[in-house]
Write a structure and sequence with these properties.
The chain is of the alpha+beta class. The chain has 32 helices and 31 strands. This is Myosin IB.
Amino acid sequence: MEVKTSLLDNMIGVGDMVLLEPLTEDSFLENLKKRFDHNEIYTYIGSVVISLNPYRSLPIYTPDKVEEYRNRNFYELSPHIYALADEAYRSLRDQDKDQCILITGESGAGKTEASKLVMSYVAAVCGKGQEVNKVKEQLLQSNPVLEAFGNAKTVRNDNSSRFGKYMDIEFDFKGDPLGGVISNYLLEKSRVVKQPRGERNFHIFYQLLSGASDDTLKKLKLERDFSKYNYLSLDSATVSGLDDAANFRTVRNAMQIVGFMEDEMQSVLELVAAVLKLGNIEFKPESRCNGMDESRIKDKNDLKEMCELLGTEQSVLERAFSYRTVEAKMEKVSTTLNVAQAYYARDALAKNLYSRLFSWLVTRINESIKAQAKTRHKVMGVLDIYGFEIFEDNSFEQFIINYCNEKLQQIFIELTLREEQEEYIREGIEWTNIEYFNNAVICDLIENNQNGILAMLDEECLRPGTVTDETFLDKLNTICADHQHFESRLSKNSKFLNDHSLPHNCFRIQHYAGKVLYRVEGFVDKNNDLLYRDLSQAMYKANHSLIKQLFPEGNPAKVNLKRPPTAGFQFKASVGTLMSNLQSKNPNYIRCIKPNDKKASHVFNGSLVCHQARYLGLMENVRVRRAGYAFRQAYEPCLERYKMLCKKTWPHWKGRARQGVEVLMTDLQVPAEEFSYGRSKIFIRNPRTLFFLEEKRKQCLEDLATLIQKIYKGWKCRSHFLLLKKSQVVVASWFRRYAVRLLSKLLLWLPIPESFARKLLRKLKYQKKCEEAVTTIAAFWHGTQVRREYRKFFRANAGKKIYNFTIQRIMQKYFLGLKSKLPSMSPIDKTWPARPYSFLDGVHAELRRIFHLWRCKKYRSQFTEEKKAVYEEKLEASELFKDKKALYPSSVRQPFKGDYLEISKNPKYQKLSSAVDEKILLADVVNKINRANGKGSSRLFLLTKKNVVLADQKTGQLKANVPLADLASVSTSTQTDGFFALKLKEGSASAVKGDFLLSSDHLIEIITKLHRIGSMAADREKLNIDISDEFLVQFKQDKVCVKFIQGSPKNGNSVSCKRKNNRLLEVSVPASS
């Protein structure tokens, strides 16, 4: 019997915060701390998972744990990330609902690890197979590549994701992964040129210098010493616990698994090296005769090496660093760059080069992992994105990150409420409106198209004249001063308030997670994100295989004078697309929290956790979940858990589960306002009611345990007593035996008179004879009585019973004999044991038939789907050609391979493969017969579900594409040749050039597949197969007769085709031996 478990069993603290009583911020934190101290790092808020980073390995992610949570109800076991992953996967697989898993939290909270755990769990529980395993491995190995190029060491996290990632994993109808698509958001490219104290640049720079071979570094013109490069911070160059050299090997291996070619990996490393070289370029001031300041490069060695890596001319790039060309309509103006502007241009190029390389990597990974099938897929999205950020110095990056989190919070509340409302409506429970803070007003303050902060920032960036961060702040003070969630020094002063915490160059926004102070310095430049056109054109002129793809705007033929979209505009559009994507899926949430800033295990910082809980909106989430009914459970598990509380439902309830729950709640006298009955669940309003039930259950379980102990102890004592009683009887019997023997010995030795002894002996013998006589008489008497009673029935039924017994014995002997003589399991084995009796003729034949059918079924069950398809084709070939074409017997042993050319893997035919949209069912080389001379020319023959394609064998150029709907029939001879004619319907578009006369070594397979495709298509007629030694073929306007004759021995063993006249082609076929 399966043991039913529940989230409420052996609970440390409260496993679901919805059940926390009383609900206060202090009790919330105390519950988290209590569970954290007992290594319970996961806690629920309804269907939301709170995850605390333990900063150490815990034995809760083993294969046994995966099996434990597999196919289990969400609330059946203690809280775990596997429970959420399993719930999402089963909803996707069984209910055909697209899913998304939103993982949020600040840096160091464990978001990346959480996303890895979700993906590894899904990979473990979904299907197996060579192709499926390859897809799973590619999806999992995309993580190390993106982490190397997009993660960095920060003061909060040694492996912090510096970009947002959203991955759509696509599944087929069975729940097996087919591929995926990755979207990246807002790479922190400013890190490339400058890192805060105690932090590093992106991992790949350190991994390359530490793990690459000396030969590779020599080719890239690099040295291992980190101090040689200005873009690499030295105070945190090495990180304890991070092996950069080993990680570099892991990244290269992952890139190979994902599908990167060797030359692509080399190109990527060359661009990484170029970024490092770019950081070493330094400038010096130089005055011109006209009084204008300009800049010159101090040491051109790094510039030279960088140009060699990128394949560009040194003079072109040197000029791009010194001059800037501005184009307006028909005019071009060239201005010199001073030192500050040159450094700006250098850093802008480095940031753009690296960020575009990262975007290219994501695109390249998507090409490898995308699903190949074009049918509709089920989708599970995993979002790993920055959490809300509040630093001492908050700039443009924090502003748009927090904007994204505002949108996520908005969709979180909306989807949570919608989910609650849908469940209430589904269960027939009255929905009551829930009061909650709607942060739409904050989102509107930021994203409104007319007077939102982003719109005003774009307007300020695009307007002519002098544009500075101060003019942008003045614009905000003018338009947003009266907004309740916006504060600045001027807006505060206008209300006669004195707030010294607000500097003059800052503004403050009241986010849902709290107030954040933003410094406007850099807002305009970071939003513009300008790269001078001269640098783009210099990059486009490079001979590097990858660099041209990264800077398409540098093409002189495609000069676009429009300003590129701003960073804020692009991010706003990306967030809008992401929100639309998430709203189309069923959401699942993981809220990650870091317990301390020291990355130490067993340390719980209450104030830090409280801060994160506030800006993650966890208390708000609990209140929303508790606003209606705090707990709900299906009737079956509810009755199973609490049935011992009522005598009417214990131990077994025979009616419907809902009726049992109603009886139970009535008997317990729970107030009616504390619960409601849904269609399939009971809804409990207050956690106190649930804890009352749990307390009663606990007391009842103790009483039951006492009863079981009492019964067991009674049984044990009773068994012991019976054993003692039995032992006493045995001991007493042995003692009596011993006493009799002792008495007899005493009698032998005592002086007893002889007459007395004889008398005693006679008496004993007489008693024994009497006992034997009584026993014998009783036995005979009982026998007589039984026989007299039985005789009445025996005479009437004896014959029938004897006959039935005999038949049963014969049948038993027959079946046992048949069991030992059964033939082999081969379906072609026709042997069968001889029947022993003639009356078993029918049974013997029927058993032989049943055994053969069963044997065939067992044989068929061993087939894979591919093997079944091959045998079905072989069976169809037999029906078409057996006893009709002499070539057929030789084709029986040849397997139908289909793709004889491996056209998808052959780079020679890559262009042809991409031109054919559909799956290729057969690819072979055939000879196309020329009517003029009867000679053949080689052609590639491709067959899909809708078309027949002929292409040139050498060049792969498409020669003909014939829809199968245009085929009228296929003609072939009765002999051993491989000639066949594809006859086209008159008046069809393909019939303009006439029919096709072809020759192939795989004629049987080609015609069988053509006939099979035609018979399976509902919108087409069956393809006619004409087998005759003489048939007509239409060549353009003329009809030509193709005649097959037996060749003489002097012609050899080859088939030859000759033109006899304008109307006759004669095919000579050697006589078959």
